[in-house]
Design goal:
The chain is built from 13 helices and ten strands. With 322 residues, the protein is α/β, with parallel strands linked by helices. The longest helix has 19 residues, at 263-281.
Length: 322
């Protein structure tokens, strides 16, 4: 029997950027199960259900008011040009603050681009890592020092709250949500339908309008690529730092700035992602997959997979194996 459809509510606020407003309905809207049934229901609301003024030369009519936020499984908030003016709780647009208060504590929230300012101002990012558009990162860091800004990544998954960099990074973020919910096969199908890459390499540093050092000189991307070829090995922080030619402290600082995670967190994430891929695409026994991805034993793989996505390997394989 098919499960309940996941409800996504898009909150459109005055000054919304039309491109970002369209992403949730376009991407979630083409995600289906093997029988072609929709996996998501996407509805769009404004605070009062009235037309929303956009950042372009037109307004958009919506069908719902903010009351639907209380029934959302996921809330997506596209950027508004007005969010760049937020400097703290006292500068929040009143209607935005009232709408945010309707979201349930357990609801997942995805903010695109400078929506990070809104999420930080209402306190949802305190003590969390986050991403925002590189053009606004210095100002964001000054205003919200309690948020761990990852300036060079396309998006950050901090659990309940996820944030992306610029507009197109919203695509990367939503594909990540679909992949987390339903596996890589569904996310890849959505990407193909929308003619976008399933996963983009690199972060937003490549788009910054300032000279950036080559990764081989000062960054950690070369070491990350090296580690990805050796996930089956018992890699330690010292191994990564030695490969990069840095002290452990310097390597950890630069790694976190570039990736938004500690080296250990990133390694675990890569191993979980590879394990998921192998569970979906192969018939290898769980113990063999655990060895291939560097978790060593099936018990360790089960623990990490349960922590990451809440299900053991066998259940995941039965659900997502093509």
């Amino acid at each position: 029997m098919p499960g309940a459809v996941h409800r996504v509510v898009v909150l459109a606020l005055d000054g919304v950027i039309p491109f970002e407003l369209s992403l949730a309905s376009r991407l979630f809207g083409v995600a289906t199960d093997p029988d072609g049934r929709p996996l998501y229901e996407v509805v769009t609301c404004s605070p009062d259900g009235k037309p929303v003024r956009t950042a372009a030369d037109f307004s958009i009519a919506v069908e719902h008011d903010a009351a639907v936020l209380a029934q959302a499984d996921t809330v997506v908030i596209p950027a508004s040009q007005e969010f760049a003016e937020i400097s703290g709780p006292d500068t929040l647009p009143r209607r935005a603050a009232e709408a945010m208060a309707l979201i349930r504590p357990e609801t997942r929230i995805a903010g695109i681009c400078i929506t990070t300012f809104l999420l930080a101002a209402v306190g949802l990012l305190d003590g969390r890592a986050a991403a925002t558009h590189w053009h606004h990162s210095d100002r964001f860091r000054r205003l919200f020092p309690e948020v761990e800004l990852a300036p060079d990544v396309l998006f950050v998954d901090s659990g309940r709250v996820l944030t992306s960099a610029g507009a197109a990074a919203g695509i990367d973020l939503i594909l990540h949500l679909i992949r987390s919910d339903h596996g890589s096969a569904v996310a890849n199908h959505v990407a193909r339908r929308c003619v976008v890459p399933p996963q983009r390499e690199g972060g937003q540093a490549q788009y910054v309008e300032r000279p950036v050092p080559h990764s081989s000189d000062a960054g950690t991307s070369r070491t990350r690529a090296w580690a990805l070829d050796r996930l089956h090995e018992p890699l330690q922080l010292a191994d990564l730092a030695d490969h990069a030619g840095m002290s452990r402290r310097t390597f950890t600082r630069r790694f976190r700035a570039e990736v938004g995670l500690s080296p250990g967190q990133w390694l675990t994430q890569q191993r979980v992602d590879l394990a998921r891929h192998l569970l979906e695409s192969s018939d290898l026994p769980v113990n063999r997959i655990a060895e291939r991805v560097g978790f060593g034993t099936g018990a360790s793989l089960r623990q990490h997979l349960n922590t990451a996505i809440g299900v053991p390997p066998g259940v995941y394989r039965r659900t997502f194996q093509g």
